[in-house]
Amino acid sequence: MHVAIPLYPRFTALDVAGPYTVLSMVPGCTVTLVAADRGPVADDFGTFLLAATASYEEVPAPDVIMVPGGTGTLDVLSDEALVNWIRQAHEHTRWTTSVCTGSLLLGAAGLLEGLPATSHWALLDLLKQYGAEPVSTRVVHTGKIVTAAGVSAGIDMALTLVGKAVDEETAQSVQLAIEYDPEPPFTAGSLQTAPEGIPDRALHLLTQTP
């Protein structure tokens, strides 16, 4: 199983690193980071660099695409090279997936029309402009499209994908291998549980990234 993860300026590091780690541990699975051109791409903060080892043209038909989100997502919705690659690769995929605002790029590629999908809570309603039905759940699976909510939900999505693409025992083995057993110190991880005032402070943090 060949997984391709596209990188673009100001992607969110955990959107990539979480699913990358999960999927790379699956026997027989190869993960390739792709971009318009080979070379390093900087994350939201401009200091964490990941290197694309292949261009879009070099990976036209992966088995899986996993589109990350980031503060740069809105800027690349009009990036024809990226959006066209997503659209064309989708024709060949077994699974087309996204994390966080990466679902907006699936929408821009015309893949979410009439489908339920999720994204980061701060931009969830933007999915409507692509004809999608915004859903406030951790992972949404419809046909061969799997979307995940914000950032850390990418790990949930990747484990869900392994369970469906391979088997649950493999997914459980990976989960244990990475010791993914969340016990967050606070109950502020969703809009439903966050204390008063925390959503505004969270939005402020999101707008402070470079």
From TrEMBL:
InterPro entries: Class_I_gatase-like, DJ-1/PfpI, INH-QAR. SUPFAM superfamilies: Class I glutamine amidotransferase-like (SSF52317). Its EC number is 4.2.1.-. GO terms for molecular function: lyase activity. Pfam families: DJ-1_PfpI (PF01965). Keywords: Lyase. Residues 2-162 form the DJ-1/PfpI domain. This is DJ-1/PfpI family protein.
